[in-house]
Amino acid sequence: MSVLQVSELTKRFGKFTALNGINLEVREGEVFGFIGPNGAGKSTTIRILLGILKATAGEAKIFGKDAWADAVEIHKRISYVPGDVNLWPNLTGGEVIDLFVKLRGGNNTNRREELIKRFDLDPSKKCRTYSKGNRQKVALVAAFSSDADLYILDEPTSGLDPLMEQVFQQCVMEQKQSGKSILLSSHILSEVEKLCDRVGIIRQGKIIETGTLSELRHLTRINLLVKTKEQITDLHVLKGIHEIDEREGVLSFQVDTEELDVVMKHISQFGVVKLESTPPTLEDLFMRHYEGKAGAGGRS
Amino acid sequence: MASQINKGIGTLSKFIIRRDRIRIPLWLVGISFFTFIVPISFTELYGSQEQRDTLAQTMENPAMTAMLGPADLSNYTIGVMTAHEMLLFTAMAVGLMSILLVTRHTRGDEENGRIEMIRSLRIGRLSYLNATLLVYSLTNILLALIVGFGLYGFQIESMDLEGSLLYGVTLGTTGLFFAGVTAFFGQLSESSRGTIGLSIGFLLVAYIVRAVGDVGNEALSWISPFGWITKTQIYDENNWWPMALMLVVSMILFIVANYLNSNRDLEAGLLPSKPGRNSASVFLQSTIGLSFRLQRTAILSWAIGMFVLGVTYGSILGDIDSFFEGNDVLEQLFGSEEGNSVTTQFVSMIIMVMAILATVSPVMTVNKLYGEEKKGRIEHILGRAVSRTRLMGSFLVISIINGFVMISLAAIGLWLAGVSTMEEPYQFGTIYGWGIIYYPAMLVMISVAVLLIGIRPKITSINWMYIVYSFFVLYMGGLFQLPEWLSKLTPFGHIPQIQLEDMTWLPILILVTIAIALTMVGFIGYNRRDIGR
Fold first, then answer.
1. Where do transmembrane segments lie in this chain (chain B) (predicted)?
2. Which of B91, B143, B108 is nearest to B16 (CA)?
3. What pLDDT was estimated at residue B140?
4. Is the CB of B382 less than 8 angstroms away from the CB of A82?
């Protein structure tokens, strides 16, 4: 069952094409990571999903309803945290939280107090005195106080300290365990790795890859650290070997997953003393997509 | 020690000039331009002494004295006329310049954490404040020189060198004075908003105190710096000493600001800021509640202002007839219609001006919706279960009530004060009716704001120009002898003058229809367009 379905979504601002026919799907009960560098189109996509921007072409559906036409109906069942939380300087954090919860419909005071405590927020302060992290906490408390079926979170942790990031991750996991769906946009990759079931990678307005983390890993390389009795020769001749580096007799390099068998057979000839392998991080995966493609170097 | 505390003042001054290299010239050019254009146009419009004397006679009433201050109306030369009609308003503009620019570099920079970075460098504790004061002292001296020699440079008869220099010095000293006032309030308040609010509040109170003083109580106008300004009597008596007094007070303000600044923590204010509410009141928990709450202070200030304005004009109604009595010229000018007293003519003019002013606050209310959008706060609302129609509707409802309250308060104030000063006061219903009949025109202005936000939000400022145009054409139209059709381009020009003629419903009906139509188009547009920055 898909909760959120985006097909061939295109958005142009004048001559500039921000989104070029993207496809996305968030299934019920999953955490979907939406990653990409700044300016790739993450926030534009999310704003279309919220009915704040109107798509030029294509379809965006949440709970089977049109994101633009049925925005209000949809919003009764979702919770949203924007990437840049701007609040009213003359209202207090507590007032803003209550207002947000009320505007969405329904109220859950117990949860509110609990979350304020967990996120360590002082709700009696005016928003003008809050730091970026504190403004984000206000939005997060408001979002998690509401009982939503789908959470749309746009880089929600960019201003939080590591401790608060953990609280956030717990909140996400709790929601997931109670069967809620979450769309999490981020460029903090460790977070996405920790939380997400599936990811979609967007770049320059196009989805370049979608799948579970393990599905995507077959595309990428494994990092190997090898020490052998004899000097390994002819390594660079083999297919699928990258970034060879030698330091104090220890050889490190990357191997394309599909070439692993051949490589292992080759190096075992030289008498392996030590072998460490690390799975690719999402960061490697991410970087790999930018290598060799047009306009590479888009590390954000 | 003293050199330590002001270390780096030269570098910082250059830095401030660099940051304001556009702003400062813009203000200087703007203020001098409006100062120069007035005597030039007066020589064209009121070339002969006869014409000027006619105008002087229309000035001879408390309302004008309240607005412009006293002048020697028996010697109404181009020079006296310029100083009388322009000096106070220009001085207020100069005051505003100082308030905005000084706040920007004191509380503004402090609030945004920039002064913290500067203070961590080899910079004295008071350097930034004093660099700001130094730069704006120089700016105001420059203004004094430009205006002083500029006015003299036009070689208009009756505008001699001494008077022209005093004119410039008066403006410059006013600027210095308000730089001091702002630096002082900047120590008290914790935010730049608060600083600007307190300083502009001071400016307005000073103006009103002077107005009341000039009309009734001489001693009162001595309290107000604007009272000192009108006492210079430029191009007539050329009194320099009020400006000497103002200069001394400015210096005292500079010193006090320095003292307060050196004795407080960075980013602290001397006025305590109170902790806020832990949770929202029932009242805030809706879009209407939010849209009111965001503008509560502004709306309240405007409401008080409109009421005071009504009272101010009402308090002089009793004197109007005696002023005009036996004065043929004036009776011709104002009381041409049969069966209508001069007072009625005067009241009808005042009410129209009040109606246009009463439009400002409701239009600000609607424009706030776009302000919120630009600041990225609308997505919080629309991201929840709130439709665009409901959101815009909330702001519109507040605006419509706002406008009704504004014009009502002005009319009530006018009537209340009128009752106490007039021998045969107007009925409440009469005055209130004259005021409320402008409400449809105000609705049209509100609907223009809705329309612009719905379809072309980037040009919302056009509505302000439209309001300024309405004011200019209807109020000054007589003075500058503008053709009739210009006043038909604004909704205010279509309101039947029921104090002078019979009521006709057709224009009212048409205005309301236009307002509804424009509002509807605005809503449709707002429901269709992208929201964002």
1. 24-42, 86-105, 126-152, 164-184, 196-213, 240-260, 299-318, 346-370, 391-416, 436-455, 462-483, 503-526
2. B108
3. 95
4. no
Judged by CB atoms within 8 Å, which residues 83-142 of A form the interface with B? 84, 86-92, 94-100, 102-105, 123-126, 128, 139
Q: Which of B294, B377, B386 sits opposite A103 (nearest CB)?
A: B386
Q: What are the start-end ranges of the H helices in chain A?
A: 42-49, 71-75, 93-104, 109-118, 132-145, 162-177, 189-195, 213-217, 260-268, 282-290
Question: Which strands, in side-by-side order, build the sheet including A206-212?
Answer: A78-81, A150-154, A181-186, A31-35, A198-203, A206-212
What are the pLDDT digits (tens) for A208-223?
Answer: 888 887 777 666 678 8
The dihedral region occupied by B482, where left means phi > 0, alpha psi between -120 and 50, and beta the remainder, is beta
As a CATH number, domain A2-216 is: 3.40.50.300
Enter the tokens of residue B278.
């832990």
Query: Pick from B275, B286, B11, B261: which is nearest to B123 by CA?
Result: B11
Pure H helices in B120-240: 127-153, 161-188, 192-215, 218-221, 225-230
Domain boundary assignment for chain B:
2-262, 282-528
Q: For chain B, how long is the longest CA-to-CA vector? A: 77
CA distance A228 to chain B (A): 55
Q: Are strands A250-256 and A272-278 parallel, antiparallel or unpaired?
A: unpaired
Interface check for B287 against chain A (CB to CB < 8 A): the answer is yes
Domain ranges of chain A: 2-216, 221-279
Instruction: State the smallest CA–CA distance between residue B530 and chain A in angstroms.
Output: 4
**Which CA distances in Å does B200 have to A44, A162, B64, B67?**
41, 44, 23, 18
Q: Residue A292's pLDDT is what?
A: 47
Cα separation, B48 vs B56, whole angstroms: 12
Q: Would you say B146 and B175 are in contact if contact means Cβ atoms under 8 Å apart?
A: no
The verdict on A80 touching B (C-beta cutoff 8 Å) is: yes
The nearest alpha carbon in chain B to A98 belongs to B280
Which residues in chain A have Cβ-Cβ distances shorter than 8 Å to B285?
A: 98-99, 102-103
Ranges of chain B whose pLDDT falls below 70: 1-3, 63, 272-274, 319-340, 478-480, 533
Do A92 and B384 lie within an 8 Å CB cutoff?
Answer: no
Phi/psi-derived region of residue B188, left when phi > 0, alpha when psi is between -120 and 50, beta in every other case = alpha
Report ipTM for this prediction. Answer: 0.78
* Residue B445, pLDDT score: 96
CATH number of A221-279: 3.30.70
Pick left, alpha or beta for residue A106 (phi over 0 → left; psi -120 to 50 → alpha; otherwise beta).
left
Q: Helix B23-45 to helix B127-153 angle, to the nearest 10 degrees?
A: 20
DSSP string, A188-245: -HHHHHHH-SEEEEEETTEEEEEEEHHHHHTTSEEEEEEEESS---SGGGSTTEEEEE
Both tokens assigned to B171: 């403006």
Select from A80, A87, A128 the Cβ nearest to the Cβ of B191: A128
Q: B275–A76: do the CB atoms touch at under 8 Å?
A: no
Structure tokens that stand for B491 in this block: 């909704």
A207 has a chain B CB within 8 A of its CB: no
Which residues does A298 contact at the CB level (< 8 Å), separation at least 6?
A: A37, A203, A290
Q: A102 contacts in B (CB within 8 Å)?
A: 280, 285-286
Rounded to 5 degrees, what are φ and ψ at B333? -70, -45
- In 3D, which of B484, B343, B495 has the Cα closest to residue B426? B343
The SS3 of residue B206 is helix
To the nearest whole Å, the CA of A300 is away from the closest chain B CA by 22
